[in-house]
Amino acid sequence: MPKPKKKSGRTPGPRGRGDRAGIRTRLFDFKREQILEVAERLFYERGFRSTTLDAIAAELSVTKPFIYYHFRNKQDILHVLVQRTMQRNAEVFGGINVEQGRPTELLHELCRRIVFLVINSRTSIAMFWREQKEVPEQEKLVMHAAKQRHDGQLQRIIERGIASGEFAVDDPKLAVLSIQGMINWAYTWYRPDGRLSPELIADGVADLAVRAVVAVSRAAGARAPESARPSAPARIQAA
Amino acid sequence: MPKPKKKSGRTPGPRGRGDRAGIRTRLFDFKREQILEVAERLFYERGFRSTTLDAIAAELSVTKPFIYYHFRNKQDILHVLVQRTMQRNAEVFGGINVEQGRPTELLHELCRRIVFLVINSRTSIAMFWREQKEVPEQEKLVMHAAKQRHDGQLQRIIERGIASGEFAVDDPKLAVLSIQGMINWAYTWYRPDGRLSPELIADGVADLAVRAVVAVSRAAGARAPESARPSAPARIQAA
DNA sequence: CCTACCGATCGGTAGG
DNA sequence: CCTACCGATCGGTAGG
Fold first, then answer.
1. Does strand C come within 7 Å of the CB of A75?
2. Does the beta carbon of B207 lie under 8 angstroms from any beta carbon of chain A?
3. In this complex, how many residue pairs, one in chain A and one in chain B, have their CB atoms less than 8 Å apart?
4. pLDDT at residue A13, rounded to an integer
5. Which of A4, B74, B131, B217 is 20 to 30 A off residue A188, Cα-Cα?
6. CATH superfamily ID and name for B1-72
7. B45 touches chain A (CB under 8 A)
8. Which sign does the torsion angle of CA B133, B135, B141, B144 carry?
9. Separation of first and last alpha carbons in chain B
10. Strand D nucleotides in reach of protein CB atoms, 7 A cut-off
11. Is the CB of residue B13 inside 7 Å of nucleic acid strand C?
12. pLDDT value of position A30
């Protein structure tokens, strides 16, 4: 039987004990997923406060109590969505070892991956930044800590690059914030039917980020080395 | 006599005919201004939807009808604040002639000014970006058009720089969006009690923006020329 | 008779 | 999981 006192926003839904997911648990998770998808879209389009649970229910052709069966309340839905966005971000930053490899390639690759994430998860990312005020203070502290860790990783790359002579930066912290801005801002302007493909955008923004901090006297020049750039050809989307 | 059928969000308040502001008109405008200040702060802190007119009234120790006497409704207050933010932005972009001067200095100076605006008007700017969904469709079109004009000015500078050999950019449009991101993102992280002064931040971000697009072979190097940088010493704020 | 408001309450809708 | 509701609170406006 599903609904074993689901705690706050448990993302994968309740799992009885250690047993593999039963049909009912999988069904429960599937329904949760449907709700989350619709909620994310509506929160993105209308904002958290302006989105009624009835609107979410209507989109799914269910009733409001159906939603309350799968989530504790409206905040809980936002909580799960925010946790997910943080999780995806943490995966990107966790997938890079900032202590290994040349800073130039490291920075380019990390930027490229974050831009990709921002573009592909733009609704989540936009929600994440817009609805910070709806998040309880405690969770905000966790979010802030994660942000600090990620900024720290970027800063470490930049400082390694300064030490190696690849980069020349007045203020590493300011450079980190500026690069984060360059990257994150993409959620405000990216359109799937736009001129450039996600690959080209990710690569282009990463180039600009590297150029902003790279030392000009280096033989590598201001452009990211070819090795750090994917071999994808100039793929242009329609329109 | 004030209140001559005030139309929508007339910023300066009603002026009878061509006569200079009377005491009552000035009083009316002053009250409007007080309401706008409180509303902007609360909209910034709590969001538009979560801010009740009663909360705004309470902060001013007045009643809700007092607000309704000075504004048509809640949306009208947001409308005036958004118009103001657009106005300030337009003034910065309007204060630069993109056809005159070296692109490197032009870009640095324009970026510097926008960062300054973003920092000094961060509550308005944050509201502007967060509450887009609360703005009626028609006004959104006007906002989009203004944004396009401003992006166009930045793009023009970059294209002039490419033509002169000062800049080397793969995709001018992508560079514009990235630079806008670098600059606008400051509203998410700037703190008045932070480590760097607004002057140092504006200058630092402008440096990074220029470096991202400047051609490396130029004698000017990746740094903005000294002439484009204010003579303000390294002024560091407390803490 | 107008101005500049206030106390009280309306219709409608939110989360639960 | 639905039908049928509630306690509260919202933006906006009546009369005086």
1. yes
2. yes
3. 113
4. 39
5. B74
6. Homeodomain-like (1.10.10.60)
7. yes
8. negative
9. 50
10. 1-4, 9-15
11. no
12. 79
- Reported as a single tens digit per residue, the pLDDT across A47-93 is 898 898 888 988 888 888 888 888 888 988 999 999 999 999 999 99
As a rounded value in angstroms, the CA-to-C1' distance for A65 and D2 is: 8
CATH superfamily, domain B76-228, is Tetracycline Repressor, domain 2 (1.10.357.10)
Fold match between domain A1-72 and domain A82-228: no
- Which window residues (12-71, chain A) lie with Cβ within 7 Å of strand C? 49, 51-54, 64, 68
Q: How far apart are the first and last CA of chain A?
A: 50
How far in angstroms lies nucleotide C6's C1' from the CA of residue B51? Answer: 22
pLDDT tens for residues A150-175?
A: 999 999 999 999 999 999 999 999 99
CA distance B137 to A239: 24
For position A22, what pLDDT does the model report? 66
Reported residue count of chain A is: 239
Nucleic strand C within 7 A of Cβ A175: no
Cβ of B122 near strand D (under 7 Å)? The reply is: no
CA proximity to A198, closest of A81, A105, A84, A115:
A115
CATH of domain A82-228: 1.10.357.10
At A51, phi and psi to the nearest 5?
A: -90, 120
Residue whose token pair is 């999780």: A87
Number of Cβ atoms within 10 Å of the Cβ of A128: 22
Contact A211 B213 (CB under 8 A): yes
Confidence of residue B28 (pLDDT cuts 50, 70, 90): confident
pTM of the model: 0.83
Nearest Cα neighbor of A176 from B41, B4, B185, B161 is B185
Q: Give the residue from chain B lying closest to A42, CA to CA.
A: B133
Structure tokens at B18: 């061509």
Domain range list for chain B: 1-72, 76-228
Q: A92 Cβ partners below 8 Å, 6+ apart?
A: A110, A113, A114, A117
